[in-house]
Write a structure and sequence with these properties.
It is a single chain. 57% of the residues lie in helices and 7% in strands. The protein is an alpha/beta fold and 281 residues long. The strands form two sheets. It has a five-stranded parallel sheet with strand order 2-3-1-4-7, sandwiched between helices. A two-stranded antiparallel ribbon has the order 5-6. Strand 5 and strand 6 form a beta hairpin. The protein starts with a helix and ends with a helix.
């Protein structure tokens, strides 16, 4: 009974299930500006709950076992990977409002997502996950988990494993199916529209600004402009990809790699020394 009493007084207020590149970072900033104090975006999911989401992806725990405890003190959830568990979140917090962020069209979403993936593939982060993947389990448990994590994030985001794309060229991404990913975008949004009660759902394009969002949340419109964040800059850089390489879990993987390399080199030196000594004897 105490669990249900706690649930009745600690309610998540807003769930944002929108796919990446639909204005999720801008939405997180906007909701913070509207007074939602505890907003969990992509960075917070990594910082606080990376291991739990790895366990969820691998089926070691169930949504019903962990989601309430993870988010009972959180006002808003937005962006990957928590957005893909929006059904479970809504079951745990049935009074939460749902804001589905969308683009003008599936074409607009795909072009933005494609640019995002191209920049991701050109990063050192991608190189470490892709080219050295056979060695990751030997070098770093955390790095191996990160690769599996992004394998699943890619599939859930667009219907394809972006870690196994071959290369980037002037003609685009080799193995990147535009038709499949556009269909994925449409089907994902259709599922949210069909499963969330109409009065509980706002389908929202961040280009619409404060008006529809504030009306839906019954909050006064602020004087400041609606925030627009995580756009690609003039040189093609995307902030969240650059920042993600500095997350604690990424730094932990790098540290594990250096320790493993040092151990392997020391072991090799000992073996070589022993062999040399034996030959000389």
């Amino acid at each position: 009974r105490s669990h249900y009493f706690i649930q009745s007084i600690l309610r998540m207020k807003v769930i944002c299930p929108g796919l990446p590149k639909t204005g999720t970072t801008s939405m997180a900033l906007a909701l913070r500006e509207l007074g939602f104090a505890n907003v969990h975006d992509h960075e917070e999911h990594f910082l606080y709950n990376f291991q739990v989401f790895c366990d969820l992806f691998e089926g070691r725990v169930r949504e019903s076992e962990v989601l309430f405890d993870l988010y009972k003190d959180v006002d808003v959830v937005v962006d990957t990977p928590a957005n893909y568990f929006w059904v479970g979140l809504l079951k745990q917090f049935p009074d939460a409002k749902v804001v589905l962020t969308v683009r003008d069209s599936e074409e607009a979403w795909f072009r933005s997502w494609e640019q995002h993936v191209k920049y991701f593939m050109s990063s050192n982060f991608y190189s470490n996950l892709h080219w050295y993947s056979p060695f990751l389990p030997l070098l770093t448990k955390t790095g191996s988990q990160i690769r599996q994590f992004f394998h699943r994030i890619g599939i859930l985001s667009c219907g394809q494993d972006i870690l196994n794309l071959k290369d980037v060229s002037s003609e685009g991404l080799s193995g990147f199916s535009e038709d499949l990913q556009k269909s994925h975008y449409l089907m994902y949004n259709a599922a949210v529209r069909s499963l969330v009660p109409e009065k509980q759902l706002l389908v929202f394009n961040v280009k619409e600004g404060w008006g529809p969002l504030c009306d839906f949340l019954d909050i006064p419109v602020p004087d400041s402009p609606f925030p627009h964040e995580n756009k690609a800059t003039g040189d093609g850089k995307i902030a969240i990809i650059d920042r993600s390489q500095q997350f604690d879990v990424m730094q932990k993987a790098k540290s594990e790699i250096w320790v493993s390399v040092a151990v392997y080199l020391a072991s090799l030196a000992l073996v070589c020394g022993a062999v040399s000594f034996k030959l000389m004897a």
